[in-house]
Design goal:
The chain is about 60% helix and about 5% strand. With about 120 residues, it is mostly helical. The relative contact order is 0.12.
Length: about 120
Amino acid sequence: MSSILQPGRRARGSRSGRPIMVLLDLLGRRMTLRILWELSQACQPLTFRALQLAAETNPSVLNSRLRELRAARIVEHGAGGYQLSATGDSLVGLILPLHAWAERWAAQAKSARGTAARTPRKT
């Protein structure tokens, strides 16, 4: 999808244009979450090259995602480079609890697999 995502406009997987669907489309795009993570962990704005190295991506993908994230006002570009906007910082604050939940979920799944492996099968 080459057009810039906006609430009220169609997004992948949805014809409604509901804001949550548009956001999930954007967040589900290749490297979007990694870019947000790297910007959230940076102590200062990152240049394009520094962000490319940190996110371990190619310039074409990075350029596309930055264009979309800037249009969505999640990332901003200033004299020092790219950084999260106040909106982007707020979004990352909402995503971090999902990260913590996913870690607990993975640990539970790993524990359940370990228990299943130790349980003898009935023959």
